[in-house]
Amino acid sequence: MKQILLSLLLLCGTFTIFAEPTKGHGEKAQEPFLRMRSILYYDVTWSTDSMKVGEEMSVQGKFHVFDEWPDVLDNPDVVFVNVGVPGPVFLRKETYLNGKLMLNSTSVEIGGDYEFKVVLKARKPGTYHVHPMLNIQGAGPIVGPGKFVEVQATDTAFTNEVTTITGQTVDLERYGLANVVTWHVIWALVGIAWLIYWFRKPLFIPRMVEIQEGRGEELITSRDRWVGAGFAAFTLILVAFGYFRAEMIYPTTVPLQAGRSQVAAMEMVPSSIEVSVEEATYRIPGRTVNLTLRVTNNGSKPQQLGEFTTANLRFIDASLVKPTEGYPVELVEEGLQVEPSGSIQPGQTVTLKIKATNPAWETEQLALLIYDPDSRFGGLLMFYDDQGNRSIVTIGGGLIPTFI
Ligand SMILES: [Cu+2]
C-alpha cells in the first residue's frame, strides 16, 4: 500500500515538474479535416495586441465556407459568429457579418465568402490568445488564426454601463447580483432541508433489504407523505411568489431573442483561373506537402501564385504577398516553392508543382490527417495579376502519405 502511494505521488510529481503553462485552447487538437475543410479563414487582422482593461479592440477578416463540406459535419445552417478566448475576459460589444449586425445565429452558404468583424472590450488583465470563431451547430466551434493580446490592469474598477429601454443606466457587471445570490441561497436552503429530512432515516442498504423483503411500503410513513406534500406546495408558492414579484419590480421586459437572421454571401468576382489537383502527397520525413496542379488562366492578365493557405497556416511567396503588420509569425511560412516560377500567361495551361514545407504540419498536428479514414485536404490558392489584384481558388482532394 505504502509503495503504491509513493509511486502515485512520484507520478504526480513528475507531471507537475514537466508541465508547461498552457496558453492556447486546444485548437491543435481539432481534427485536421475539420480545420482544413470547413471554414477557411483569410485576411484576419487584430487592431491591437496590447491594451488596458476597458479599452476596445476589433478582430476582422474573411472566411470561405469550403465547397466540399465534410459529410460527417452538419451543414452550416445554424452559425454563430463569435471569438475564441479563454473565458469571459472580453466583452463582445458588436458583431458583424457582411456588414450586418449579428445578434443571433445565421446560416452560411457552402462555397460562399463572408466578411466578419467583432468588437471586443477588455474585461480582465492577462495575456490571451484571441481567435475569430464560428460556432456551427452539428460541426463544433471552428477557430481562425490566434494572436496573443495582452491586457493590462487599470486602477479603476471595470464597469459595463448600458442604458435600458426605460432610460435607466445600469452597470451590467453588478446588475441584479444581489437578487441572483438571494435566490440561489433560498433554493439551496430548500434543497438542504429536503436532504436532511431524508438523510435522518436509514439509507441505501437497509432500504434495499426492506424492499427485497417486500416491506417497501412501510419505508414511507404518512408523515413522510405530509412532509413531501408540504415541500411541493411550498416550492410552487415560492415559484409563484418569485414570478409575481419580478413582474411587479420589472414591468417592462424583452424576452431573449431566439430568431435567426439571414445574411447573403459576398459578391465575388468569378475567378478566371481553373485549377485541378493532379496529385497531392505529404512527405512525412520532410514535413512537406507536395501538390501537382493543372492551372489554366482563362483571363486576360498574367497570373502568379502568391499564397496557399489551409487550416490557418499560410505559405506565401514573399515577393508577392506581405502579411499585414503584426500577423502571428508562427502561422506564416515565407518561401512557397512553385515550379515553374513566374506568371501564367492568358490562355496558357501549366502544370504547377508546389512545395509547402513547414514543421507546423507536425506541430499543428495536421499530419494526423493521413491516419484519417478520409484523408482529404482542402485549402485556398491566391493568385495575383500584374496589378496586384487577387483571385482566390479553392482546392481539395485526397492526400497520400509518402515515406521517402
Ligand atoms: Cu488559441
First-residue to last-residue Cα separation: 51 Å
Number of helices, counting only DSSP H or I runs of 4 residues or more:
6
CATH homologous superfamily classification of the largest domain = Particulate methane monooxygenase, b subunit. Chain: A, domain 1
Shape: extended
Instruction: Return the CATH class of the largest domain.
Output: Mainly Beta
Unreliable stretches, pLDDT < 50, 5 or more residues?
Answer: none
CATH topology of the largest domain: Jelly Rolls
What count of structural domains? Answer: 3
CATH architecture of the largest domain: Sandwich
N-to-C series of helices and strands: HHEEEEEEEEEEEEHHHEEEEEEEHEEE
* Structural classification: alpha+beta
Average pLDDT, to the nearest integer?
A: 89
**Percent strand:** 35-45%
What does the largest sheet look like? 5 strands, antiparallel
Bound heterogens, unique: copper (II) ion
Radius of gyration, whole Å: 29 Å
- Spatially, the strands of the biggest sheet line up as 1-3-7-5-6
| Helical residue percent band | 10-25%
Record field, number of beta strands: 22
Keywords:
single chain, 404 residues, alpha+beta, Jelly Rolls, Helix Hairpins, Immunoglobulin-like, five-stranded antiparallel sheet, five-stranded mixed sheet, 6 helices, extended, binds copper (II) ion
Helices and strands, with pairings:
Blueprint: H1 2-18, H2 32-36, E1 39-46, E2 50-52, E3 56-65, E4 79-84, E5 90-97, E6 100-101, E7 113-122, E8 126-136, E9 140-143, E10 147-152, E11 161-163, E12 169-171, H3 177-199, H4 204-212, H5 222-249, E13 273-283, E14 288-297, E15 303-310, E16 313-316, E17 332-334, E18 337-339, E19 349-357, H6 360-363, E20 376-385, E21 390-398, E22 400-402
Parallel strand pairs: 2-10, 13-22, 16-17
Antiparallel strand pairs: 1-3, 3-7, 4-8, 5-6, 5-7, 8-9, 8-10, 11-12, 13-14, 14-19, 15-16, 15-20, 18-19, 20-21
The site of copper (II) ion (CU) has 6 residues, from strand 8.
